[in-house]
Amino acid sequence: MKPSKTILPIIVVSQFCCTSLWFAGNGVMHNLIVNFGLAESALGHLTSAVQFGFILGTLIFAVLSIADRFSPSKVFYAIGPRPYFGIDGFIKK
Asked: Which of 2, 10, 44, 65 has its CA 20 to 30 A from that of 92?
């Protein structure tokens, strides 16, 4: 079976989109503070929550050996960019 030429660009774009979440809080936090009357410390809490979520997700994947039990590409496809971009139609099965 010949490897698909589209898989690497899909992984690169997905990684870029997922890691951009680390910085999304900084971009919207001022508007959230103004619109919802949040404390100035809310940026720190939001940043910590995002980082904690990434760490917790990584820990769960490691403890459950998800990548060892299932094909990593299928796991990535199942939880990767699909919810964000609806690219189900672009990936051939």
From this structure: 65
- pTM score of the predicted model: 0.55
Yes or no: say if 43 and 37 are a contact pair by the CB < 8 Å rule.
Answer: no
Map tokens 């990684």 to a residue: 15
Asked if residues 17 and 84 have their Cβ atoms less than 8 Å apart, the reply is yes
**Which ranges of the chain have pLDDT less than 50?**
87-88, 91-93
What string of H, E and C letters represents the secondary structure of the chain?
Answer: CCCCCCHHHHHHHHHHHHHCHHHHHHHHHHHHHHHHCCCCCHHHHHHHHHHHHHHHHHHHHHHCCHHHHCCHHHHHHHHCCHHHHCHHHHCCC
